[in-house]
Structure formats: structure tokens, C-alpha cells
Inverse folding.
């Protein structure tokens, strides 16, 4: 086994491990590490960009957030079919309610709201630990609203770099604690541009997508491999 440490511009530490099995053609490359996603009192939109296995789907609210947030913190997942589910961290260190909606929202390309109790004086980091999901990930995009994210732990443009299938008048809403929503990002197909600017979410950041009804459902295909 050969292992080397990588300090990436995205702000996460990863270890790349390449393993070759003797007398076989089997070869694997897995990149594992951690991401520190800051939080403070109130609401923030969080994406799970490291996963417990290579599929990018085997995640739970307890596995992602553990007890690294204050008691009575809440994680809100949104389903385009059934609406919100809410999981709450109890004093005994267990998460109550909200599943499977919250767990589904923590899959690759999804996202959740994290609510930290109180009004002031609490800040910290959610430390996400796991594998960087590599290869191609296909994420359904519905007509209407859903919470989405970039699959790998990068801060980059969603269309230019990550191939978001923007249609005319599709919109993206980014929320920043404590200031609130940024100006709405709207895609104009006539000029192939975003106004006022193309969305560039940070590492560990989720965002709302509003797919214009006239554009119908589609698929966001993201492809990424660690350089």
C-alpha cells in the first residue's frame, strides 16, 4: 500500500491510498479525509461531501453529524415528494425523528438545513469524514424546488466547472448565516450567462435550485476524479 497526504485548495485534508492485490488485476484508488464545515447559531445550509462508502449514498444523520453539534440541534431534510423531515440531537447523544428523509438528503449531491439552538455564543465545526465520491454521479433535477450541492468537496462554479444543466430562468438561492440569502442567481439561456453571477458555493455548502416549470425535469451529471 502506498499512501500520501494531499492538502487541497478546497480546504480538506485527504489521504490517497492505492492498493494492488498480488497476482491479480484488481487495483483501487480511494481518497479519504475530512472537511470542517463551520456553524453558528441559527440556520445554515450544509452538504455532505464525504461519504461512508464509494457509492456516496450510505450516510445517516448520526454518521455525518455524530455529536459534534450542540444538544437540541436540528437537521432538516427536504423531499420533493413529502416535504420536510426533522432530526433532533437529544441529550443522550442520539438523533430522534426525521429519517429516512434526512438521511436521503445527505446522499451525494443533496443537502440539508442545520439549525443550531440559541441566538448567540455558539460556534464550531461539523467534521465530515469519509471518502471522496469519484467518477460520474447522476442526480435527478425536478421541476420546482429542491436542495442540491456539488458532489466533491470543492468550491467552484456549478455550470462551468460541474456541468449543471441550467435552463432559461432556472434559479439558485444561496443562504449565508447570519446575513441571509444572497441575491438570486438566474440563468439566461439567450446569453448563456447568470445574473448577477454564476453560483459558486463553498466547500460543504448546499443551496436551493428552482427549476423553471417550462424546462421540465432533467438530470445533473457530475464527473470528478482526484487529480
Amino acid at each position: 500500500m502506498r499512501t500520501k497526504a494531499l492538502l487541497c485548495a478546497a480546504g480538506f485534508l485527504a489521504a490517497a491510498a492505492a492498493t494492488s492485490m498480488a497476482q491479480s488485476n484488481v487495483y483501487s484508488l480511494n481518497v479519504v479525509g475530512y472537511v470542517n464545515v463551520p456553524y453558528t447559531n441559527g440556520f445554515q445550509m450544509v452538504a455532505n461531501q464525504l461519504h461512508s462508502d464509494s457509492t456516496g449514498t450510505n450516510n445517516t444523520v448520526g454518521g455525518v453529524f455524530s455529536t459534534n453539534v450542540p444538544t437540541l440541534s436540528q437537521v432538516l431534510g427536504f423531499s420533493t415528494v413529502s416535504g420536510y423531515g426533522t432530526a433532533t440531537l437529544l441529550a443522550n447523544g442520539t438523533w430522534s425523528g426525521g429519517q429516512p428523509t434526512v438521511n436521503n438528503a445527505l446522499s451525494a449531491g443533496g443537502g440539508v438545513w442545520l439549525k443550531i439552538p440559541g441566538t448567540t455564543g455558539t460556534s464550531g465545526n461539523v467534521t465530515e469524514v469519509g471518502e471522496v465520491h469519484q467518477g460520474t454521479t447522476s442526480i435527478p433535477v425536478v421541476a420546482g424546488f429542491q436542495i442540491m450541492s456539488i458532489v466533491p468537496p470543492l468550491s467552484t462554479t456549478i455550470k462551468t466547472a460541474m456541468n449543471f444543466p441550467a435552463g432559461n430562468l432556472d434559479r439558485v438561492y444561496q443562504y449565508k448565516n447570519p446575513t441571509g440569502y444572497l441575491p438570486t442567481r438566474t440563468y439566461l439561456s439567450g446569453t448563456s450567462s447568470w445574473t448577477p453571477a454564476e453560483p459558486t458555493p463553498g466547500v460543504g455548502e448546499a443551496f436551493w435550485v428552482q427549476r423553471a416549470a417550462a424546462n421540465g425535469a432533467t438530470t445533473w451529471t457530475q464527473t470528478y476524479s482526484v487529480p
Summary: The radius of gyration is 18 Å. Confidence is low (pLDDT under 50) at residues 1-28.
